[in-house]
Design brief:
Chain lengths: ~450, ~850
């Protein structure tokens, strides 16, 4: 405790530790030759007369899309088999003004399949559809679509698909994003290609109005895990901006240069009382391996598994490896956020599981108490707290009205902290509006 | 090249004021053309669109964009359940355009631009330059699929929109964000900035239907773009494969006097003295309230002229008043404003047509008209529209917004959305926000972020009142994120304990989210009603339009996406079904308390709401439907699905009529609108509008301006003028059995009328209204429909009751000027006049012997 207090007096040093990382050097193992006139000689054409066309121009592969829906042909090439790496390319999809849009270009490699959906102006991938969409008599899922990112027609966009066959992770990144828009956490990356050899396919799904899509700089990199492992510093703060996170205002308190945010957004109007949410981005492998602190600020895991179990396991690995996990309370946190019974709670959280409606509202705002706050002239107050109790191995660092407010416990090389206060209610001196809040926030997080 | 076109060239030569060498340079990058009057640049990289223009000499010119645009028609040929595809406008700018030099000499040069849009549309455009101030542009479009739009668009982003006037209408052309100002062709328009400007002359028989002008204003100064467009009309109804010939003349950089002169010589068909427009001061007045008509008249000739002016008024069934208003004298080319108070006699109610006629030497030379309403309950007699605060918010443009809405004949406007939160413990933080500037924070924040100022809202409401427009504040019943976090006990919760969030968005570090309120006690509802009354005091609203309801166990979503009663939980986790087992009683009591609290302070307050008054709700909540419909303005949003639920006119009309009748007995006036799946302006949409009116319902929104030729097929003035026969609550739909027996029409199976037979009882007899729509009832609404054939000499027989005789009959016809035509009666039969899209037959039965 004393050590922590001493750190809070400093200029908020981010928890930093040196870890051995699996991040190694990357190595270019294949590149499509779209520059030389014979560049397409290495590709096999599976397109009949009148169907999609493939030509090279100005260093680009031009895919001429025709009106043969779902039967417009493709080209295919052999690529080296790689268990961990990424495919990178740029694509210009659709043209403004093309009428009757629909699915158009697709690009597949190994067992990873993506396509561009003009109508919705987005990049998508195929994933197994939910169980309820199985065809009668079949035990396997029909293919479903997962939206990856919004794409503006006619613009060149950089794409990166990172994969790791060991963890079955596939990460999809578009534009200049540092983190994936979508992670498939249990995807058989190589599929049949593991036995048949690596393949890449580029093709067309057909379109009512013929037009041209372009692809360039198509490269495959392999992570070289045999290269010398180097010391990496965990110095990033991964902040999940949950429902009331703007009241916590951590983005104003934490150092911007180290901050990566993952914001809870509404996907569409929710007529029924089932919230329709997702996080705009999810932390990818790179971010998690560099994370010093992971903050779930009133950040729900449900509904619809928006904080999927594989990510919870990734977070567990990061904490075991030295990162700190911090959960901040709110109307969508903990049990209300669907964390009850989750992997994260069972494995990491220093709290006994409680009822779903775990809130307790004090008759009047209660001052937050604890060594860190003692001596403060106007201690911050809290009106509503999560009514949960700490596990045996946990320390209660702050409390209010006889209830724990900040609970902490070690996990592996890291720590897990849960702030059970919530920013709900209107009261003078409530903690998140008090002048003491930045200092308190730093104390909770660091 | 047509003979007519040569005539135009000849006219051009006549007005050429100086002779100077015509220069044309066709390079790799661009095409440059100049003469003694202008210099033009066409950019090869931008499809040889016109990208710069200026006067002759060293003037650098101004950046512009002049390009031809077209869009294929998106209406499907077969019913698939889907609506029309959105028309995608494809501009010449960006296409692979070939430029060919046709001829080049000192007197005249010509180029041809040609390009294809897909395989189905090919365009060839000839530009003819000579030493005159104008350029002739002739466009040929060959198409093998239906076209939806074809236009020539001229954009001037260099001239502040605030400094522009638009001639010859001789009044400010200032428009509001993206809302066009339209006028008919053949004519000419001149976009003036300072002393000079650019003119477009739509030559006679040039193939264009109307001009459209608008500004796209962006903050902070709201003035950064002017756009003129020439539109070809009725394109989907041209023969396919087909060809379109469109001609106009561009007059770059010319003074106002020169373009007047040029226009007068090239357009000899303009009337010598013309009424440019006639417009009522107010769209809707109360009985006894004053109104006036204002017109702009122009002398299009170089001589002095004088005209006699007459004001006419038409109302009811054949009521007419003609008032001579003296003589007006004009100097050459003079334009004058003329206005006159309109008398309001005690029997002038519902819709009234006011017309202005001018006569030269006793001969009628021009007539323009406008319609307005006179009523003490506006929802029954006016057209309704809706504007969003995301658009309607520019300080300084309050008058322009009201003007635009008046041009669309909107007597009621739903203003959506305007409050930072529709509920707050204190009204000054919510409905009656006491700040100069705030961010509306409701459902729409899911789509955009915007700000509003008190001065704009108050100014807009006042400006609308001055034009007889009633403004209803939109209320969603959704609470904003910050208010919610401070008062979590007032919310609905999901079964998993999370607050039930309707939607929202994060902008920067600010989260906008809206949640559903649970104020289901009479005290809470009454407090809320008093906050609405505070809001009326502060902003001057005439009423409200809820997009939410006081039923505790149904979703606050107006479209009922889940289609089932929704169970939410309160703050403690108690299900709503346990809290409120009798939702009808609780909802009725809360709504009643809310309405009472407002009307105690504002007796004329118009209560409006979104109401799903269908069979299922009428079974579970009959009292609530009665309370919500009581003298209310109603939105039937649940009826707006043309895709799968109500795909044919008959299915839609059946449900519409049933719903209207269900609410009409309590005085409710219904609207539907922004119908999904139909193309604006298409025959399908026009027919759907007529069906809507015939069912006794108003069509909300999308009312186009009526000052162009398309207005001949605009149903809005028709519905306003004859509102009494569409919307009067004493007209009741006849039972189906009587509808089958009491009206017979010749070839009646070919049109739709059987659903729309109403009657009302009067002092000395009975009136029957039969509305005919020229479409088969089983027609799929979203499918492409050709223009209907004109129905001629259609005979209709009606069946008087015992002791009744057919006393009078009238046909009500839509058109540029809605008309009421008395009909000859032959026994129990009448013959309708020729009609194209819709006609209403009103017959009066009197007691035999009277």
């Amino acid at each position: 405790m004393k050590q922590t207090m001493a750190m809070s007096k400093s200029i908020f040093p981010i928890l930093a530790c040196v870890v051995l990382t699996t991040l190694g050097a990357e190595r270019l193992i294949w590149k499509a030759d779209f520059e030389s006139p014979q560049g397409l000689a290495a590709w096999q054409f599976h397109t009949k007369n009148g169907r999609s066309t493939y030509a090279l121009k100005d260093g680009c592969l031009e895919v001429g899309i025709t009106g043969h829906f779902y039967d417009d042909g493709y080209i295919e090439a052999d690529i080296p088999l790689c268990r961990s790496g990424y495919l990178e390319f740029e694509a210009q999809v659709n043209q403004p003004g093309v009428s009757n849009p629909g699915p158009s270009l697709f690009l597949e490699f190994y067992n990873i399949s993506t396509f561009w959906h003009d109508y919705c102006k987005d990049w998508r991938c195929y994933v197994p559809a939910p169980e309820q969409r199985r065809e009668p008599g079949f035990a396997m899922e029909a293919p479903g679509h997962a939206q990856i990112a919004r794409i503006f027609p006619g613009q060149w966009v950089r794409y990166r698909i990172q994969f790791d066959a060991k963890t079955d992770h596939v990460e999809f990144l578009a534009g200049n994003a540092r983190d994936p828009s979508l992670i498939l956490g249990t995807h058989p990356v190589l599929g049949r290609d593991e036995y048949l050899g690596g393949r890449i396919r580029i093709g067309s799904m057909g379109h009512t109005s013929p037009y041209v899509c372009r692809i360039r700089n198509l490269k495959l990199f392999e992570y070289d895990e045999k290269s010398e492992k180097e010391g990496k510093t965990r110095d990033l703060i991964l902040l999940f901006n949950g429902f009331s996170s703007n009241l916590y205002g951590l983005h104003r308190i934490l150092p911007q240069e180290k901050l990566r945010t993952y914001t809870l957004v509404s996907t569409r109007a929710a007529a029924s009382p089932i919230n329709r949410w997702k996080y705009d981005l999810l932390p990818g492998r790179v971010s998690l391996e560099q994370a010093a602190v992971i903050i779930l600020a009133d950040a729900p895991a449900e509904p619809a598994g928006i904080l999927p179990e594989f990510l919870q396991k990734d977070i567990e690995r990061a904490v075991a490896d030295g990162a700190r996990l911090v959960l901040l309370g709110g109307p969508c946190a903990l049990n209300r956020g669907g964390l009850g019974g989750s992997w994260l709670w069972k494995r990491l959280l220093p709290l006994n599981e409680g009822a779903v409606k775990d809130m307790h509202t004090f008759p009047e705002p209660m001052p937050i108490q604890g060594n860190f706050i003692s001596g403060t002239e106007k201690p911050p107050k809290v009106l509503t707290v999560h009514a949960l109790t700490p596990r045996e191995n946990a320390d209660t660092l702050l409390s209010a009205g006889g209830r724990p407010v900040l609970v902490s416990a070690p996990f592996g090389k890291g720590t897990v902290r849960v702030f059970l206060g919530t920013p709900l209610g209107q009261a003078e001196g409530i903690f998140h509006k008090s002048t003491f809040w930045p200092e308190l926030a730093k104390y909770i997080i660091q | 090249m047509t003979i007519g076109f040569h005539n135009v060239i000849a006219c051009c030569l006549l007005v050429a004021c100086s002779v100077s060498a015509l220069e044309l340079k066709l390079g790799k990058e661009n095409l440059k053309v100049s003469n003694a009057h202008y210099q033009l640049t066409f950019d090869a990289k931008r499809g040889y669109a016109l990208t710069r223009l200026g006067p002759a000499g060293k003037h650098p010119g101004i950046p512009v964009l002049g390009a031809f645009c077209c869009a294929p028609d998106g209406q499907p040929d077969k019913y698939t359940g889907a609506g029309h595809a959105k028309q995608q406008l494809i501009s010449q700018n960006g296409q692979a355009v070939t430029c060919t030099l046709l001829r080049q000499d000192a007197a005249s040069s010509a180029i041809r631009l040609s390009w294809n849009v897909g395989k189905e549309i090919s365009i060839s455009q000839e530009w003819i330059f000579d030493d005159s101030p104008s350029v002739i542009v002739h466009t040929s479009v060959a198409f093998t699929r239906r076209l939806g739009k074809a236009l020539w668009r001229f954009t001037d982003a260099a001239t502040p929109a605030n400094n522009v006037s638009f001639l010859p209408d001789a009044r400010p052309c200032s428009t509001v964000l993206d809302k066009p100002y339209r006028s008919a062709t053949p004519h000419w328009k001149f976009l003036r900035h300072g002393k000079n400007g650019t003119g477009i002359i739509a030559v006679e028989d040039g193939g264009w239907e109307y001009f459209q002008y608008f500004t796209r204003r962006k903050s902070p100064d709201w003035s950064n773009m002017n756009r003129m467009e020439l539109h070809a009309g009725e394109l989907p109804h041209r023969t396919v494969p087909g060809k379109l010939e469109l001609s106009f003349r561009l007059v770059p950089w010319i003074s106002e006097s020169k373009i007047r002169e040029l226009a007068s010589t090239t357009l000899p068909s303009l009337p010598k003295v013309e009424i440019v427009h006639a417009e009522m001061d107010k769209v809707c007045i109360k009985p006894g309230e004053n109104n006036a008509i204002e017109t702009t008249l122009i002398n299009n000739s170089p001589e002095n002229r004088k005209v006699d002016v007459t004001l006419t008024l038409d109302w009811g069934l054949g009521r007419h008043l003609s008032i001579p208003c003296g003589q007006i004298q004009f100097a050459p080319w003079e334009s004058r404003q003329w206005r006159r108070d309109v008398p309001n006699t005690s029997d002038m109610r519902w819709g009234i047509t006011a017309g202005v006629e001018i006569r030269e030497n006793g001969q009628l030379t021009d007539r323009k008209n406008d319609v307005f309403s006179c009523t003490s309950f506006p929802p029954e007699a006016v057209a309704a529209d809706i504007v969003n605060a995301g658009n309607c918010r520019q300080d300084g443009f309050e008058q322009e917004w009201a003007d635009y809405l008046k041009r669309c004949h909107a007597g009621i406007v739903e203003y959506y959305c305007w409050a930072p939160s529709t509920w707050s413990p204190k009204s000054e933080d919510g409905l009656a926000i006491d700040k100069e500037k705030w961010e509306p924070h409701t459902e729409s924040q899911g789509a955009y972020r915007t700000t509003l100022t008190r001065s704009f809202v108050q100014g807009f409401v006042n400006a609308s009142h001055a034009r007889g427009i009633r403004i209803l504040a939109w209320i969603t019943g959704l609470v904003n994120h910050e208010v919610m976090l401070e008062h979590p006990e007032m919310l609905q919760y999901c079964p998993d304990g999370q607050p039930s969030v309707y939607n929202g968005r994060v902008y920067g570090d600010k989260r906008f989210a809206v949640m559903k309120l649970a104020p289901y006690t009479q005290k809470a509802a009454a407090d809320w009603g008093r906050q609405m009354a505070d809001s009326v005091d502060r902003f001057g609203w005439d009423g409200c339009r809820w997009d939410w309801k006081f039923l505790p166990n149904v979703s606050s979503d107006p479209i009922y996406a889940d289609g089932s009663p929704v169970v939410w939980h309160d703050w403690r986790g108690v299900p709503s079904t346990t809290l409120y087992p009798d939702q009808d009683a609780v909802g009725t009591a809360c709504l009643s308390a809310w309405r009472k609290a407002v009307s105690e302070r504002h007796p004329d307050f118009i209560y409006g709401t979104n109401l799903r008054a269908d069979d299922s709700l009428s079974q579970v909540a009959p009292k609530y439907i009665a309370e919500a419909s009581r003298n209310a303005y109603l939105q039937f949003e649940f009826l707006l699905n043309f895709g799968t639920k109500y795909p044919t006119y008959a299915k839609w009309a059946g449900e519409l009529c049933k719903t209207v009748q269900r609410c009409r007995i309590y005085g409710g006036q219904g609207t539907v609108g922004f119908m999904k799946g139909v193309e604006e302006g298409s025959v399908s949409e026009r027919m759907a509008r007529h069906v809507c009116h015939a069912a006794g319902c108003k069509w909300l929104g999308g009312n186009r301006e009526i000052r162009y030729h398309g207005s001949q097929r605009n149903s809005v003035p028709f519905a306003i003028r004859f509102a009494e026969y569409f919307y009067s609550t004493d007209f009741r739909l006849l039972p189906e059995e009587r509808r089958k027996k009491e009206v017979m029409a010749e070839n009646g199976d070919e049109c739709f009328f059987r659903q729309f037979i109403y009657e009302r009882h009067m002092k000395d007899g009975r009136q029957m209204a039969v509305h005919f729509v020229n479409a088969r009832p089983d027609t799929y609404v979203t499918v492409f429909q050709p223009r209907p054939e004109i129905r001629r000499n259609m005979k209709v027989a009606v069946s008087p009751m015992k002791d009744e005789r057919l006393a009078r009959a009238f046909a009500l016809l839509p058109g540029k000027e809605p008309a009421c035509i008395p009909l000859q009666i032959s026994g129990n039969m009448v013959t309708l006049p020729d009609w194209e899209e819709a006609v209403s037959l009103i017959v009066e039965f009197s007691k035999a012997g009277k």
